[in-house]
Design a protein that fits this description.
Two copies of one chain form a homodimer. Chain A has helices at residues 28-39, 79-92, 115-123, 159-167, 185-196, and strands at residues 2-8, 40-41, 44-45, 49-55, 63-68, 101-105, 108-111, 128-137, 148-152, 171-174. Chain A is α/β, with parallel strands linked by helices and 199 residues long.
Chain lengths: 199, 199
């Protein structure tokens, strides 16, 4: 399985989201594009992929909305449809206590869980990877099966998050000569993993 | 310069576009994501890139909306902002006669021009490329400078368009083992061209 964890620092965690102004809602537009890039192929879903969106904007942080390609159904890849699903998740999860999780719809769950908690759990079982301009080229990097990628949003990963990842033994990679837009990163990663048959 | 031509077969060409239902407007959501993928890097625009959207949906086809990275300004990468620009272009271009072109705003033009006309012009000066599952791998393909990529939307390129491209000497490439979502294709192409320093 391929797993992505998106740290969405400003994405609103209360469910009163205006679906007609995703940019204004803590850059929810970008969050939705990352989800779309992680999960969609032409006319099908990547069944081997999970993406967790760790949201820490106002007013009910932390919130973790997770999309499971294996069971995801009936969602189109446009920003607004994905935003509607996130809104529904935040609504269903509004009163969760820390550590609790709830089903939202097939392939979508919401939890009251912090980014750090999930990343720490994953580091115990999987190869943890994040993007860094001084990382190893994705084309030469030795992937293990079931890799977990940590991504930042438009703000990138804060320095303290990078240090936290380093302490957990995370590996740094880079995708090419240019620093890419967040939502383009899963596309390059998937392409490399498809070629190397890493699942 | 890198150039993309997106054949958007169903994208509406009359300017009465509902910005809150891009999926319903001939999959304008997808068109916007392709534009975004072709032109955006992290916190900057690809100044060396142009994308032409050849729209042939109802009711005023053909329409060509072209985005020039070199002079594009003030547009955010979310679907709705790009759709607003396309709507403005269609409005300004509503009464153009065949062959006429008009400035919309810095870096954006609209023309009454068919896909086939533009592709034919480009074939005379540039290496023309399109995606095909039996094409050569993008990683071994020999790019010339100023390549022009032809892309399909959710419907793909019709067989007759592939034949037309073949007659013009277009080359076929593939991006990897999987057939990708349209809006992910420019990301892989750019990554390869960045690595090979093809502009």
């Amino acid at each position: 399985m391929r797993e992505f964890i998106l740290l969405a620092l400003k994405a609103k965690t209360s469910p009163n989201i205006n679906l007609d102004d995703l940019v204004g809602e803590g850059r929810l537009d970008l969050v939705c594009r990352v989800v779309s890039s992680a999960l969609f192929l032409s006319h099908k879903i990547r069944r081997d992929t999970v993406i967790h969106v760790a949201m820490s904007g106002p007013r009910l942080p932390p919130k973790m909305v997770s999309f499971y390609g294996s069971t995801w159904a009936g969602i189109t890849p446009d920003e607004k449809a994905i935003a509607e699903t996130i809104k529904k998740a935040l609504s269903k999860g509004a009163s969760l206590a820390l550590g609790e999780e709830k089903d939202v719809q097939p392939g979508v769950k919401v939890a009251k869980k912090a980014f750090e908690t999930l990343v720490k759990e994953k580091s115990e079982t999987s190869q943890l990877i994040y993007l860094h301009p001084k990382g190893e080229d994705v084309r030469t990097f030795k992937f293990e099966q079931n890799p977990v990628f940590v991504l930042g949003d438009f703000l990138g990963l804060p320095k303290k998050t990078e240090k936290f990842l380093d302490r957990l033994g995370a590996k740094k990679i880079k995708l090419g000569p240019n620093v890419l837009f967040s939502s383009h990163c899963p596309v390059i990663m998937h392409n490399e993993l498809d070629r190397k048959e890493v699942y």
